[in-house]
Amino acid sequence: MSDVRETITRVHHEEWARVVASLTKRFGDLDVAEEAAAEAFATAVERWPDVGVPPNPGAWLTTTANRKAIDRLRRENKRDDKHKEAQMSYDDPPEPLGVIDDERLRLIFTCCHPALSMETRVALTLRMVGGLTVPEIARAFLVQETAMGQRITRAKAKIKAARIPYRVPDTEDLPRRVSGVLTVLFIVFNEGYLATGPDTDPVRHELTSEAIRLTRLIRALMPDDGEVAGLLALMLLTEARRTARVSASGELVSLDEQDRGSWDAAMVAEGHRLVRERLAAGVAPGRYQILAAINAVHTSARDVRDTDWSQVVALYGQLVRVDPSPIVELNRAIAVAELDGPEVALATVDRLSEKLDGYHAFHATRADLLRRMGQSQQARAAYDKAIELAGNTAETAYLTRRRDQLAGPSKPS
Protein backbone atom coordinates (compact mmCIF):
# COMPACT_ATOMS: atom_id res chain seq x y z
CA MET A 1 0.00 0.00 0.00
CA SER A 2 2.76 2.45 0.99
CA ASP A 3 4.64 1.64 -2.24
CA VAL A 4 1.57 2.53 -4.31
CA ARG A 5 1.08 5.80 -2.46
CA GLU A 6 4.75 6.68 -2.95
CA THR A 7 4.31 5.94 -6.65
CA ILE A 8 1.23 8.17 -6.80
CA THR A 9 3.20 10.99 -5.18
CA ARG A 10 6.05 10.54 -7.67
CA VAL A 11 3.66 10.39 -10.62
CA HIS A 12 1.94 13.55 -9.42
CA HIS A 13 5.30 15.33 -9.39
CA GLU A 14 6.16 14.05 -12.88
CA GLU A 15 2.83 14.19 -14.68
CA TRP A 16 0.77 17.04 -13.21
CA ALA A 17 2.00 19.70 -15.64
CA ARG A 18 1.69 17.36 -18.63
CA VAL A 19 -1.91 16.52 -17.79
CA VAL A 20 -2.89 20.15 -17.16
CA ALA A 21 -1.15 21.32 -20.34
CA SER A 22 -2.80 18.63 -22.44
CA LEU A 23 -6.25 19.53 -21.16
CA THR A 24 -5.62 23.25 -21.54
CA LYS A 25 -4.78 22.77 -25.19
CA ARG A 26 -7.84 20.66 -25.80
CA PHE A 27 -10.43 22.66 -23.86
CA GLY A 28 -8.88 26.12 -23.81
CA ASP A 29 -9.79 26.61 -20.16
CA LEU A 30 -7.32 26.52 -17.26
CA ASP A 31 -10.09 26.08 -14.71
CA VAL A 32 -11.48 23.02 -16.48
CA ALA A 33 -7.95 21.65 -16.91
CA GLU A 34 -6.98 22.08 -13.27
CA GLU A 35 -10.20 20.65 -11.86
CA ALA A 36 -10.18 17.65 -14.19
CA ALA A 37 -6.51 16.94 -13.46
CA ALA A 38 -7.15 17.11 -9.72
CA GLU A 39 -10.12 14.74 -10.07
CA ALA A 40 -8.02 12.32 -12.11
CA PHE A 41 -5.33 12.20 -9.43
CA ALA A 42 -7.99 11.79 -6.74
CA THR A 43 -9.37 8.83 -8.68
CA ALA A 44 -5.86 7.36 -8.87
CA VAL A 45 -5.49 7.68 -5.09
CA GLU A 46 -8.79 5.83 -4.69
CA ARG A 47 -8.30 3.05 -7.28
CA TRP A 48 -4.60 2.29 -7.69
CA PRO A 49 -4.10 0.79 -4.22
CA ASP A 50 -6.74 -1.84 -5.14
CA VAL A 51 -6.12 -2.45 -8.86
CA GLY A 52 -2.45 -1.53 -9.11
CA VAL A 53 -0.56 1.20 -10.93
CA PRO A 54 -1.26 1.16 -14.70
CA PRO A 55 1.66 0.47 -17.10
CA ASN A 56 1.56 4.09 -18.36
CA PRO A 57 0.38 6.25 -15.45
CA GLY A 58 0.62 9.50 -17.42
CA ALA A 59 -1.59 8.23 -20.23
CA TRP A 60 -4.10 6.83 -17.72
CA LEU A 61 -4.28 10.14 -15.90
CA THR A 62 -4.65 12.15 -19.11
CA THR A 63 -7.43 9.88 -20.37
CA THR A 64 -9.22 9.97 -17.02
CA ALA A 65 -8.85 13.74 -16.77
CA ASN A 66 -10.26 14.19 -20.28
CA ARG A 67 -13.31 12.16 -19.27
CA LYS A 68 -13.71 14.22 -16.11
CA ALA A 69 -13.51 17.43 -18.13
CA ILE A 70 -16.13 16.25 -20.61
CA ASP A 71 -18.40 15.18 -17.75
CA ARG A 72 -18.08 18.64 -16.23
CA LEU A 73 -18.89 20.33 -19.53
CA ARG A 74 -21.94 18.15 -19.93
CA ARG A 75 -23.10 19.12 -16.46
CA GLU A 76 -22.72 22.76 -17.38
CA ASN A 77 -24.80 22.25 -20.53
CA LYS A 78 -22.05 23.74 -22.66
CA ARG A 79 -20.96 20.61 -24.39
CA ASP A 80 -21.44 21.77 -27.95
CA ASP A 81 -19.68 25.09 -27.50
CA LYS A 82 -16.81 23.57 -25.59
CA HIS A 83 -16.41 20.73 -28.04
CA LYS A 84 -16.22 23.24 -30.83
CA GLU A 85 -13.48 25.05 -28.92
CA ALA A 86 -11.66 21.77 -28.36
CA GLN A 87 -11.93 20.85 -32.02
CA MET A 88 -10.63 24.27 -33.01
CA SER A 89 -7.54 23.64 -30.90
CA TYR A 90 -6.95 20.40 -32.77
CA ASP A 91 -7.41 22.12 -36.10
CA ASP A 92 -4.94 24.94 -35.40
CA PRO A 93 -2.38 25.42 -38.18
CA PRO A 94 1.06 23.97 -37.43
CA GLU A 95 3.50 26.16 -35.56
CA PRO A 96 6.19 27.90 -37.64
CA LEU A 97 9.48 26.09 -37.96
CA GLY A 98 11.83 26.74 -35.06
CA VAL A 99 9.14 26.98 -32.40
CA ILE A 100 9.42 24.21 -29.82
CA ASP A 101 6.33 22.04 -29.62
CA ASP A 102 6.07 21.50 -25.88
CA GLU A 103 2.72 21.93 -24.19
CA ARG A 104 4.23 22.74 -20.82
CA LEU A 105 6.22 25.58 -22.36
CA ARG A 106 2.99 26.93 -23.86
CA LEU A 107 1.38 26.59 -20.45
CA ILE A 108 4.08 28.59 -18.69
CA PHE A 109 3.94 31.45 -21.20
CA THR A 110 0.18 31.55 -20.64
CA CYS A 111 0.61 31.60 -16.87
CA CYS A 112 3.31 34.29 -17.19
CA HIS A 113 1.34 36.62 -19.47
CA PRO A 114 2.10 40.32 -18.78
CA ALA A 115 -1.63 41.02 -18.32
CA LEU A 116 -1.21 39.34 -14.91
CA SER A 117 0.69 40.78 -11.96
CA MET A 118 4.05 39.20 -11.18
CA GLU A 119 2.83 37.63 -7.94
CA THR A 120 -0.14 36.19 -9.79
CA ARG A 121 2.09 34.79 -12.55
CA VAL A 122 4.27 33.04 -10.00
CA ALA A 123 1.31 31.69 -8.04
CA LEU A 124 -0.43 30.45 -11.18
CA THR A 125 2.74 28.82 -12.50
CA LEU A 126 3.42 27.13 -9.17
CA ARG A 127 -0.11 25.75 -9.20
CA MET A 128 -0.59 24.90 -12.89
CA VAL A 129 2.97 23.94 -13.87
CA GLY A 130 4.59 23.02 -10.57
CA GLY A 131 1.56 21.28 -9.08
CA LEU A 132 1.97 22.91 -5.66
CA THR A 133 -1.13 23.05 -3.51
CA VAL A 134 -2.76 26.35 -2.63
CA PRO A 135 -1.58 26.06 1.03
CA GLU A 136 2.02 25.56 -0.12
CA ILE A 137 1.84 28.58 -2.41
CA ALA A 138 0.20 30.64 0.33
CA ARG A 139 3.10 29.83 2.65
CA ALA A 140 5.55 30.86 -0.07
CA PHE A 141 3.82 34.25 -0.33
CA LEU A 142 3.15 34.58 3.42
CA VAL A 143 -0.57 35.13 2.80
CA GLN A 144 -3.77 33.39 3.87
CA GLU A 145 -4.87 30.29 1.94
CA THR A 146 -8.24 31.85 1.08
CA ALA A 147 -6.56 34.94 -0.34
CA MET A 148 -4.20 32.85 -2.45
CA GLY A 149 -7.03 30.65 -3.69
CA GLN A 150 -8.96 33.73 -4.74
CA ARG A 151 -5.88 35.14 -6.49
CA ILE A 152 -5.43 32.00 -8.55
CA THR A 153 -9.16 31.82 -9.35
CA ARG A 154 -9.18 35.44 -10.51
CA ALA A 155 -6.10 34.83 -12.65
CA LYS A 156 -7.72 31.92 -14.48
CA ALA A 157 -10.88 33.95 -14.99
CA LYS A 158 -8.85 36.86 -16.41
CA ILE A 159 -7.02 34.58 -18.84
CA LYS A 160 -10.36 33.22 -20.00
CA ALA A 161 -12.10 36.60 -20.24
CA ALA A 162 -9.20 38.27 -22.03
CA ARG A 163 -8.80 35.26 -24.34
CA ILE A 164 -5.07 35.14 -23.64
CA PRO A 165 -3.67 32.76 -26.26
CA TYR A 166 -2.27 29.39 -25.28
CA ARG A 167 0.95 29.47 -27.28
CA VAL A 168 4.63 30.31 -27.27
CA PRO A 169 4.96 33.99 -28.27
CA ASP A 170 6.08 34.92 -31.77
CA THR A 171 9.81 35.45 -32.26
CA GLU A 172 9.50 39.23 -32.19
CA ASP A 173 7.54 39.11 -28.91
CA LEU A 174 9.90 36.74 -27.10
CA PRO A 175 12.47 39.25 -25.73
CA ARG A 176 9.93 41.37 -23.85
CA ARG A 177 8.04 38.33 -22.60
CA VAL A 178 10.96 36.17 -21.56
CA SER A 179 12.19 38.30 -18.62
CA GLY A 180 8.93 37.74 -16.76
CA VAL A 181 9.10 34.02 -17.48
CA LEU A 182 12.68 33.86 -16.18
CA THR A 183 11.62 35.53 -12.93
CA VAL A 184 8.86 32.98 -12.48
CA LEU A 185 11.17 30.06 -13.29
CA PHE A 186 13.74 31.37 -10.82
CA ILE A 187 11.13 31.53 -8.07
CA VAL A 188 9.85 28.05 -8.96
CA PHE A 189 13.43 26.77 -8.83
CA ASN A 190 13.95 28.39 -5.44
CA GLU A 191 10.77 26.76 -4.10
CA GLY A 192 12.30 23.42 -5.04
CA TYR A 193 15.81 24.33 -3.88
CA LEU A 194 14.59 25.36 -0.43
CA ALA A 195 10.94 24.39 -0.06
CA THR A 196 8.88 26.72 2.11
CA GLY A 197 6.31 24.24 3.41
CA PRO A 198 6.95 22.52 6.77
CA ASP A 199 5.05 19.45 5.53
CA THR A 200 7.01 19.07 2.28
CA ASP A 201 10.40 17.59 1.48
CA PRO A 202 13.09 20.17 2.29
CA VAL A 203 14.42 19.91 -1.27
CA ARG A 204 11.88 19.29 -4.05
CA HIS A 205 13.84 17.86 -6.94
CA GLU A 206 10.79 17.67 -9.19
CA LEU A 207 10.49 21.47 -9.10
CA THR A 208 14.18 22.21 -9.61
CA SER A 209 14.44 19.73 -12.47
CA GLU A 210 11.29 21.11 -14.13
CA ALA A 211 12.58 24.67 -13.84
CA ILE A 212 15.87 23.58 -15.44
CA ARG A 213 14.07 21.70 -18.21
CA LEU A 214 11.87 24.66 -19.09
CA THR A 215 14.84 27.03 -18.95
CA ARG A 216 16.66 24.77 -21.41
CA LEU A 217 13.68 24.99 -23.75
CA ILE A 218 13.64 28.77 -23.56
CA ARG A 219 17.39 28.83 -24.22
CA ALA A 220 16.77 26.77 -27.36
CA LEU A 221 14.29 29.46 -28.42
CA MET A 222 16.65 32.31 -27.55
CA PRO A 223 20.23 30.98 -27.77
CA ASP A 224 21.80 34.47 -27.84
CA ASP A 225 20.01 35.82 -24.76
CA GLY A 226 22.57 36.26 -22.00
CA GLU A 227 20.11 36.20 -19.12
CA VAL A 228 18.55 32.92 -20.28
CA ALA A 229 22.03 31.38 -20.38
CA GLY A 230 22.84 32.98 -17.03
CA LEU A 231 19.75 31.59 -15.34
CA LEU A 232 20.43 28.12 -16.72
CA ALA A 233 24.02 28.28 -15.46
CA LEU A 234 22.84 29.48 -12.05
CA MET A 235 20.33 26.66 -11.77
CA LEU A 236 22.86 24.02 -12.85
CA LEU A 237 25.55 25.20 -10.43
CA THR A 238 23.00 25.23 -7.63
CA GLU A 239 21.37 21.91 -8.51
CA ALA A 240 24.81 20.29 -8.75
CA ARG A 241 25.08 20.58 -4.96
CA ARG A 242 21.63 19.14 -4.22
CA THR A 243 22.67 15.73 -2.85
CA ALA A 244 25.16 17.37 -0.50
CA ARG A 245 22.75 19.97 0.89
CA VAL A 246 20.73 17.79 3.28
CA SER A 247 22.26 15.28 5.71
CA ALA A 248 20.97 11.76 6.32
CA SER A 249 19.26 13.07 9.45
CA GLY A 250 17.38 15.69 7.42
CA GLU A 251 19.44 18.73 8.37
CA LEU A 252 20.60 21.43 5.98
CA VAL A 253 24.34 21.26 5.28
CA SER A 254 25.91 24.69 4.78
CA LEU A 255 28.17 25.33 1.80
CA ASP A 256 31.34 25.33 3.90
CA GLU A 257 30.47 21.90 5.36
CA GLN A 258 29.37 20.15 2.16
CA ASP A 259 31.20 17.16 0.68
CA ARG A 260 32.36 18.78 -2.53
CA GLY A 261 33.31 15.42 -3.98
CA SER A 262 29.60 14.54 -4.09
CA TRP A 263 28.67 17.50 -6.27
CA ASP A 264 27.49 16.64 -9.78
CA ALA A 265 30.64 17.24 -11.84
CA ALA A 266 28.80 17.26 -15.17
CA MET A 267 26.39 19.98 -14.02
CA VAL A 268 29.25 22.03 -12.58
CA ALA A 269 31.19 21.74 -15.84
CA GLU A 270 28.17 22.78 -17.93
CA GLY A 271 27.47 25.72 -15.64
CA HIS A 272 31.08 26.88 -15.81
CA ARG A 273 31.05 26.59 -19.61
CA LEU A 274 27.94 28.79 -19.85
CA VAL A 275 29.52 31.39 -17.54
CA ARG A 276 32.70 31.45 -19.64
CA GLU A 277 30.67 31.82 -22.83
CA ARG A 278 28.86 34.85 -21.44
CA LEU A 279 32.14 36.43 -20.27
CA ALA A 280 33.60 35.90 -23.75
CA ALA A 281 30.59 37.63 -25.30
CA GLY A 282 31.79 40.93 -23.89
CA VAL A 283 28.26 42.13 -23.11
CA ALA A 284 27.39 43.79 -19.79
CA PRO A 285 25.93 41.00 -17.65
CA GLY A 286 22.49 41.02 -16.07
CA ARG A 287 21.35 39.74 -12.69
CA TYR A 288 21.31 36.03 -13.48
CA GLN A 289 24.69 36.11 -15.20
CA ILE A 290 26.29 37.75 -12.17
CA LEU A 291 24.65 35.30 -9.78
CA ALA A 292 25.91 32.45 -11.98
CA ALA A 293 29.42 33.91 -11.89
CA ILE A 294 29.28 34.06 -8.08
CA ASN A 295 28.26 30.40 -7.98
CA ALA A 296 31.04 29.59 -10.44
CA VAL A 297 33.58 31.05 -8.01
CA HIS A 298 32.17 28.93 -5.17
CA THR A 299 32.08 25.73 -7.21
CA SER A 300 35.60 26.29 -8.56
CA ALA A 301 37.08 25.97 -5.07
CA ARG A 302 38.01 22.42 -4.12
CA ASP A 303 37.91 23.46 -0.47
CA VAL A 304 36.02 26.33 1.16
CA ARG A 305 39.40 27.75 2.23
CA ASP A 306 40.30 28.13 -1.44
CA THR A 307 37.30 30.38 -2.17
CA ASP A 308 38.26 33.67 -3.82
CA TRP A 309 36.21 35.87 -1.48
CA SER A 310 37.55 39.10 -2.96
CA GLN A 311 36.11 38.04 -6.30
CA VAL A 312 32.80 37.13 -4.66
CA VAL A 313 32.61 40.53 -2.96
CA ALA A 314 33.45 42.29 -6.23
CA LEU A 315 30.71 40.38 -8.06
CA TYR A 316 28.17 41.22 -5.36
CA GLY A 317 29.21 44.85 -5.72
CA GLN A 318 28.42 44.59 -9.42
CA LEU A 319 25.11 42.90 -8.60
CA VAL A 320 24.15 45.67 -6.18
CA ARG A 321 24.40 48.14 -9.07
CA VAL A 322 22.18 45.96 -11.28
CA ASP A 323 19.77 44.84 -8.55
CA PRO A 324 19.97 47.20 -5.54
CA SER A 325 17.85 45.05 -3.23
CA PRO A 326 18.34 44.53 0.51
CA ILE A 327 18.70 40.77 0.01
CA VAL A 328 21.64 41.34 -2.35
CA GLU A 329 23.17 43.67 0.26
CA LEU A 330 22.68 40.94 2.87
CA ASN A 331 24.46 38.36 0.73
CA ARG A 332 27.29 40.79 0.00
CA ALA A 333 27.72 41.32 3.73
CA ILE A 334 28.10 37.57 4.25
CA ALA A 335 30.99 37.58 1.78
CA VAL A 336 32.47 40.73 3.35
CA ALA A 337 32.58 38.89 6.69
CA GLU A 338 35.02 36.40 5.14
CA LEU A 339 37.34 39.22 4.08
CA ASP A 340 37.00 41.92 6.73
CA GLY A 341 35.53 40.06 9.68
CA PRO A 342 32.07 39.68 11.26
CA GLU A 343 32.11 43.11 12.96
CA VAL A 344 32.30 44.95 9.63
CA ALA A 345 29.62 42.74 8.10
CA LEU A 346 27.28 43.10 11.08
CA ALA A 347 27.28 46.88 10.74
CA THR A 348 25.96 46.49 7.20
CA VAL A 349 23.47 43.81 8.18
CA ASP A 350 22.01 45.84 11.02
CA ARG A 351 21.29 48.71 8.63
CA LEU A 352 18.97 46.33 6.77
CA SER A 353 16.86 45.44 9.80
CA GLU A 354 13.87 47.60 8.92
CA LYS A 355 13.58 46.13 5.43
CA LEU A 356 14.36 42.50 6.25
CA ASP A 357 12.99 41.96 9.76
CA GLY A 358 10.45 39.41 8.47
CA TYR A 359 13.06 37.47 6.46
CA HIS A 360 14.47 34.43 8.24
CA ALA A 361 17.84 34.57 6.46
CA PHE A 362 18.44 38.06 7.84
CA HIS A 363 18.16 36.79 11.41
CA ALA A 364 20.15 33.64 10.60
CA THR A 365 22.95 35.81 9.19
CA ARG A 366 22.93 38.07 12.26
CA ALA A 367 23.00 35.00 14.49
CA ASP A 368 26.05 33.57 12.73
CA LEU A 369 27.94 36.86 12.81
CA LEU A 370 27.13 37.37 16.51
CA ARG A 371 28.20 33.78 17.26
CA ARG A 372 31.54 34.42 15.56
CA MET A 373 31.94 37.58 17.66
CA GLY A 374 31.35 35.61 20.87
CA GLN A 375 28.05 37.32 21.68
CA SER A 376 26.17 34.14 22.54
CA GLN A 377 23.11 35.66 24.19
CA GLN A 378 22.37 37.97 21.29
CA ALA A 379 23.14 35.18 18.82
CA ARG A 380 20.66 32.89 20.60
CA ALA A 381 17.89 35.50 20.29
CA ALA A 382 18.66 35.92 16.59
CA TYR A 383 18.60 32.15 16.06
CA ASP A 384 15.24 31.96 17.84
CA LYS A 385 13.80 34.56 15.48
CA ALA A 386 15.25 32.80 12.42
CA ILE A 387 13.79 29.46 13.56
CA GLU A 388 10.42 31.11 14.11
CA LEU A 389 10.37 32.48 10.55
CA ALA A 390 11.97 29.58 8.67
CA GLY A 391 9.55 27.20 6.96
CA ASN A 392 12.02 24.66 5.60
CA THR A 393 12.39 21.61 7.85
CA ALA A 394 16.06 21.02 7.04
CA GLU A 395 16.93 24.66 7.59
CA THR A 396 15.05 24.72 10.89
CA ALA A 397 17.00 21.65 12.06
CA TYR A 398 20.29 23.30 11.09
CA LEU A 399 19.46 26.57 12.85
CA THR A 400 18.29 24.72 15.96
CA ARG A 401 21.56 22.79 16.19
CA ARG A 402 23.62 25.93 15.74
CA ARG A 403 21.63 27.68 18.45
CA ASP A 404 21.94 24.75 20.84
CA GLN A 405 25.74 24.69 20.36
CA LEU A 406 26.03 28.20 21.83
CA ALA A 407 27.56 28.62 25.24
CA GLY A 408 25.37 29.86 28.05
CA PRO A 409 21.92 28.99 29.43
CA SER A 410 19.14 27.97 27.10
CA LYS A 411 16.01 30.01 26.74
CA PRO A 412 13.23 28.59 29.00
CA SER A 413 10.57 26.66 27.11
TrEMBL record:
Q: Per the record, where are the segments of Basic and acidic residues compositional bias?
A: 75-86
Q: What positions does the domain RNA polymerase sigma-70 region occupy?
A: 18-78
Annotated signal sequence range: none
Q: Does the keyword Nucleotidyltransferase apply?
A: no
Give the residue spans that cross the bilayer.
Answer: none
Q: What top-level branch of life does the organism fall under?
A: Bacteria
Q: Its Gene Ontology molecular function terms?
A: DNA binding; sigma factor activity
Signal as a keyword of this entry, yes or no, is: no
Q: Which residues form the DUF6596 domain?
A: 177-277
Q: Which GO terms describe its biological process?
A: DNA-templated transcription initiation
Positions the record marks as coiled coil are none
Show the InterPro entries listed in the entry. Answer: DUF6596 (IPR046531), RNA_pol_sigma-70_dom (IPR014284), RNA_pol_sigma70_r2 (IPR007627), RNA_pol_sigma70_r4_t2 (IPR013249), RNA_pol_sigma_r2 (IPR013325), RNA_pol_sigma_r3/r4-like (IPR013324), TPR-like_helical_dom_sf (IPR011990), WH-like_DNA-bd_sf (IPR036388)
Q: Which UniProt keywords apply?
A: Sigma factor, Transcription, Transcription regulation
Q: Region annotation Disordered: residue ranges?
A: 75-95
Q: Which residues form the RNA polymerase sigma factor 70 region 4 type domain?
A: 108-159
The text of the family note is: Belongs to the sigma-70 factor family. ECF subfamily.
Q: What is this protein called?
A: RNA polymerase ECF family sigma subunit
- Which species does the entry assign this protein to? Kribbella rubisoli
The record lists the lineage as: Bacteria, Bacillati, Actinomycetota, Actinomycetes, Propionibacteriales
